[in-house]
Write a structure and sequence with these properties.
Elements (H helix, E strand, L loop, with lengths): L8 E2 L17 E6 L5 E2 L3 E9 L4 E8 L8 E3 L4 E5 L2 E2 L1 E3 L6 E3 L6 E7 L6 E3 L3 E9 L5 E12 L13 E3 L2 E3 L1
Parallel strand pairs: 7-14, 8-15
Antiparallel strand pairs: 1-3, 2-4, 4-5, 6-10, 9-12, 11-13, 13-14, 15-16
Length: 174
């Protein structure tokens, strides 16, 4: 059995799958536990009991294994542009984190790797890529990538060519 996107699976009709396992005469009574259509969220032992009016009786136990093969959902924010004020060489930039979910309602951000993390100093003039990975309890994995582009604000219009300067600790650097 497989979990659906809601993290559930429905108990099938086991009686239909077990026909021919008994040779009873008279009226046959069949019961299944749990009932067909019961919502399952994990493994269990189901049973089918078959009896007839002549006191013939048997019970079959079946291990029901519920599998989750659906990967978690992870959504990275779109490419973000950070504008560095004129004269600065970069900025400490806080960017949006990914959102994630899973049909099991249990998902963990297991990796976030890239050139920088949110809130760190981003030097001007580069693109920074961060990759994220999430796992669910059944080791299904999803990844996404987000990019931050760091650029200088536009220089004011001067009547002469402006040099590209930035300041760092009180000194000026071209």
């Amino acid at each position: 059995l497989y979990l659906d996107t809601a993290g559930q699976s429905l108990m099938p009709d086991l009686y239909a799958q077990l026909t021919g396992l008994w040779d009873c005469s008279g009226t046959v009574f069949v019961s299944q536990t749990p009932d067909e259509g019961t919502v399952l969220t994990g493994n269990l032992v189901a049973s089918i009991q078959v009896a007839d009016t002549l006191a013939n009786d048997t019970t079959v136990s079946i291990n029901m294994v519920v599998l989750d093969t659906l990967p978690p959902i992870i959504l990275c924010p779109p490419t973000d542009t950070a504008y560095v004020p004129f004269g600065d060489c970069g900025l400490n930039y806080v960017f949006e984190q990914p959102t994630y979910s899973d049909n099991s309602n249990v998902v963990a951000l297991v990796d976030s790797f890239g050139t920088h993390y949110s809130g760190e100093f981003f030097p001007v003039g580069n693109n920074y890529t961060m990759q994220y990975r999430v796992n669910d309890p059944d080791n299904n994995t999803s990844t996404c990538t987000s990019t931050v582009i760091v650029i200088k604000e536009e220089l004011p219009n001067f009547s002469y060519p402006a040099a590209d300067f930035c300041t760092n600790a009180g000194s000026v650097h071209p």
